[in-house]
Write a structure and sequence with these properties.
Length: 190
């Protein structure tokens, strides 16, 4: 009798779970409302990167905004050029980053970040003559949390360029995040 009672209790608990699991997601209006901004994608549809132009090379350091965070492994100061920030129709956030050493050496990179995928691509480096040199065969790579020179990329991905839902922020929102945000420094350490 105890075995029969245990089986009937287990079936009584599992049956409602099975019924709930069979309700189609599309029929829930709350889910439809929360995802209405996401364009539908067919399984055969492949993401394609859109066209873009290199921004002007950042000549005026006074307009650069510091990327918050600290790195014990890197003495470089990291700045973002707010005039270079754009978000393409392809969903890629593009921006220029300036890394400056304590002695004044300067490295300039033009990068793209796909918030929805957590991937990054370097399009161009400063050529040392006040312009950009394009990177040949640049590939999309995952943004990783790391210390050292390129740790700033994780900070940009997790709390500045992308929002908490991993959507690209507008250039104005990125500017405001850099200028005014008082977010947790734990999230912004690199």
């Amino acid at each position: 009798m105890t075995l029969l009672r245990s089986l009937s209790l287990a079936c009584g608990l599992l049956l409602p779970a099975l019924v709930v699991a069979q309700v189609p997601v599309e029929s829930d209006p709350r889910i439809k409302e929360q995802t209405s901004h996401i364009p539908p994608r067919t399984p055969d549809e492949e993401w394609r990167e859109g066209a873009f132009e290199l921004p002007p090379f950042p000549a005026d350091d006074a307009r650069l905004l510091p990327v918050p965070g600290q790195s014990a492994a890197s003495a470089l100061a990291v700045f973002l050029d707010p005039a270079s920030v754009s978000v393409g129709e392809d969903g890629v956030s593009r921006y220029t980053v300036v890394l400056t050493s304590p002695r004044g050496a300067r490295n300039v990179l033009f990068e793209g970040l796909r918030c929805s995928e957590g991937t990054l691509r370097v399009y161009a480096y400063g050529d040392g003559r006040g312009g950009f040199g394009a990177v040949r065969e640049a590939r999309w790579k995952p943004v990783r949390r790391e210390s050292g020179t390129f740790g700033y990329r994780h900070v940009l991905y997790r709390s500045i360029v992308c929002d908490q839902h991993l959507r690209a922020r507008t250039p104005a929102e990125i500017d405001a995040e850099l200028r005014y945000s008082k977010g947790s420094m734990d999230e912004r350490e690199y």
